[in-house]
Amino acid sequence: MAEERQWPVLAQCLPHNARCYRWCSKMLQNAPLASFCEQLFCLCSFNVCSSLNEMLLDCLGVVSVRRTKLAVIDRDSCSCMSFNPETRRLSMGMENGTISEFILSEDYNKMTPAQTYQAHQGRVTVVLFVLEMEWVLSTGQDKNLTWHCSESGTRLGLYRTTAWVSGLQFDVETRHAFVGDYSGQVTILKLELDSCSLVTTFKGHTGNVTALCWDPVQRVLFSGSSDHSIIMWDIGGRKGTAIELQGHNEKVQGLCYAPHTRQLISCSSDGGIVIWNMDVTRQETPEWLDSDSCQKCEQPFFWNFKQMWDSKKIGLRQHHCRKCGQAVCGKCSAKRSTIPLMGFEFEVRVCDSCHESITDEDRAPTATFHDSKHSIVYMHYEPTTGWLLTSGADKVVKLWDMTPVVS
Is there a contact between 269 and 306 (Cβ–Cβ < 8 Å)? Predict the structure, then answer.
């Protein structure tokens, strides 16, 4: 595994009490940082959204915020947000299933109600505002994907999912919606003005999908899961290529992509942040082969009663080589190795012959590992400045300068 590296925290917010935050860094006197905070206004998905809003406004020096301006947020807990800096439109999904939209003033000191959508019968899990289409896409715990017209407020369409959705991305050019759910499935839907059609489904995760990231340039979709893995789906290649990335010890909580450097940023609930170099030729992980006996020494596995009886030998437990996918016994796969080009940044089981074929060059890491020192629940990357915002379960918000590692 690559050596863990550190980079400086530009600023961080520490909890003062349950309803109020204070900013603890003199870096906020810097004008570019304040400008960046404006762009990040209301991007964090907290249940105490009003407290976070007040904290961000305070860091901008806007101290005249009245609680009445945020009273509409306090009546119902917010479950998700989408902010468009171009139009300053803030779309907030609520626990009661509604979506409330506001227009923020230029000084970010006033929120004018714009629209309310009766979108779902349960908690809103994801909300997206698509400026090019004037659509508001949302998913909820009622297992419905809906899209509304942001101008009229009317519902345009609805699609029933098999499980409640935890990730949603949209491609404007093709009108494809990428939907990740709690069954571990990723569904691609073609959305029309008043209807939708199923394009295809992907099933590669053993746990629920926790994060999605779409790159419209390379036309690849990244999905993170509670099974600790990330899968890169090559949508544009139309070959069904799926590259697996294994670099986290806990569930993946967020994914961001830096298109100018072709680097993927991922974070997990254990505080780990991994920077993946995607500008390399990666290999697909092989499918695991089925066999009744070890494909190296031909010893029977424990369910192969006939061969055990004929050879008078006790059956062995089955394993799989992560490089070739062959079914092998423990004796023939006793060694471990990293295989970074196949996404395995940690050591994994390989058979003896594959272990001998892996060179030191093949073991060169393609990712760097960093510790954020808090359990991350949300992240946002701003590629123009190279800054990363992370918020944690410890009610701490940290702002990182990523330029030393994302370049």
Answer: no
The candidate with the shortest Cα–Cα distance to 343, out of 246, 256, 252, 257, is 246
Q: Is 404 left (phi over 0), alpha (psi -120 to 50) or beta?
A: alpha
> Sheet containing 185-191: which strands, arranged edge to edge?
165-171, 176-181, 185-191, 196-203
Residue 274 and residue 263 share a domain: yes
The pair of structure tokens assigned to 194 is 């008043």
What domain count does the chain have?
2
CATH of the domain at 161: 2.130.10.10
Burial of 321 (0-12, 13-18, 19+ CB in 10 A): buried
3-state secondary structure of 345: strand
Q: What is the pLDDT of residues 81-137, one digit of tens each?
A: 888 888 889 898 998 999 999 998 887 778 889 999 999 998 999 999 999 999 999
pTM tops 0.85: no
Averaged pLDDT for residues 292-317: 80
Sign of the dihedral through C-alpha 306, 289, 335, 227: negative
